[in-house]
Automatic annotation (TrEMBL):
Keywords: FAD, Flavoprotein, NADP, Oxidoreductase. This is Ferredoxin--NADP reductase. Residues 1-284 form the FAD/NAD(P)-binding domain. The keyword Chaperone does not apply. Its cofactor is FAD. It comes from Amycolatopsis acidicola. Its EC number is 1.18.1.2. It comes from the Bacteria. FAD binds at T8, D27, Q35, Y40, A80, F114, D274, S315. Homodimer.
Length: 318
């Protein structure tokens, strides 16, 4: 069982398949890709081996494709809440009460579960026109989209949606943006409408029941009504290890202490990626990939003491 479908968990799913293990991958987000999907899918990444430059979204797509031949069972939109020992191995308790049995657990929970910062006027609109991130740009082709926020993610969505949407408007509650100057300038160059010192005060559905327009209230002036089929609430995320802190593991600075096998303090429970802590740790996608390979190969031996630690070379497999 892999807890977390970020880059590390996805690569671990490939590796588990390569080692002949079956696996389920649980993630509380509705899409795979962890921080990359949630925070920077449109950014180029320059420090993943073998890719001089790769867009976040494309890296995640490649990882999902790489694992696909081994048929990982994805449990997306589900949170791993509990871990207990059972006669047959381990049991992971999911929100909603389901229990998944596993011989070993690999925790690749990154910086923890993301909780999007709420947009007060968007209460009840999630999935009915309001989103916190955009898994598929095409879904917004021809729409009027309003992006709320003033940081890098908000501007990334503005720039990504601009070529596909009918209109993109940015609404930010302050006069100054937190985003990098270069992307703010690019949005200005493209003529994106930016309404600052203003908040979305109401969202309304049309006859179809879908979101159709919003009211924006600037400070000290009259309210504006904008057409909107989608509101992207890009107000940032908080991240929290949450229930994992109570799984009987050694927690070190909001991460899980591991040894050189990526084993935690609990038998058959391993950790890799941003969530794993050891002296000299560097939190990067590249290190997460290496740790995933180390963890899964050690899990293979823990599950079958006759198995070799070294997996053989993938290049020798037809
Ligand atoms: C803006 C930004 C830019 C970055 N740029 C780079 C870069 O250029 N190069 C680089 O190498 N790194 C970069 N990073 C860091 C990189 O994204 C992380 O190192 C990487 O995502 C870690 O992968 P991971 O799979 O270990 O964890 P994450 O990507 O954090 O994935 C963990 C997953 O676990 C899930 N999860 C957590 N708890 C639970 C639970 N209880 N139940 C179910 N699911 C759970 C979360 O929802 C999440 O999807 C960047 C990070 C940010 C924020």
């Amino acid at each position: 069982m892999i807890v977390g479908a970020g880059p590390t968990g996805l690569f671990a799913a490939y590796y588990a398949g390569f080692r002949g293990l079956s696996m389920a991958v649980v993630d509380s987000l509705p899409e795979a890709g962890g921080q990359v999907t949630a925070m920077y899918p449109e950014k180029m990444i320059y420090d993943v081996g073998g890719f001089p430059a790769v867009r976040g979204r494309d890296l995640v797509k490649g990882l999902v494709e790489q694992a696909a031949p081994w048929n990982p069972r994805y449990l997306l939109g589900r949170k791993a809440e509990g871990l207990r020992s059972a006669d047959s191995g381990l049991e992971i308790l999911l929100d909603g009460g389901d229990v998944v049995r596993a011989g070993a657990v690999l925790i690749t929970a990154g910086i923890g579960e993301f909780t999007p910062r709420p947009l007060p006027a968007g209460d009840g609109w999630l999935g009915r026109g309001m989103v916190h991130f955009v898994p598929a740009l095409d879904a917004h082709a021809g729409q009027d989209v309003v992006v709320v926020g003033g940081g890098d993610s908000a501007f990334d969505w503005v720039l990504a949606l601009h070529p596909v949407a009918a209109s993109v408007t940015l609404v930010h509650r302050r006069a100054k943006f937190r985003a990098a100057d270069s992307i703010v300038r690019e949005a200005q160059r493209l003529g994106v409408r930016m309404i600052t010192d203003a908040e979305v005060s109401e969202m309304r559905a049309g006859e179809s029941g879908e979101l159709s327009e919003i009211t924006v209230q600037p400070k000290g002036s009259d309210a504006l009504v904008l057409p909107a089929q989608t509101v992207v609430a890009a107000l940032g995320f908080t991240a929290d290890l949450g229930p994992i802190e109570n799984w009987g593991l050694e927690i070190d600075h909001r991460a899980i202490a591991v040894d050189s096998k990526m084993a935690t303090a609990r038998e058959r429970v391993y950790a890799a990626g941003d969530v794993a802590s050891y002296p000299g740790k560097v939190k990067l996608i590249a290190t997460g990939f290496g740790e995933a390979a180390t963890a899964v190969n050690n899990i293979a031996v823990a599950l079958d003491p006759d198995a070799h630690l070294f997996p053989g070379h993938s290049s020798n497999v037809e």
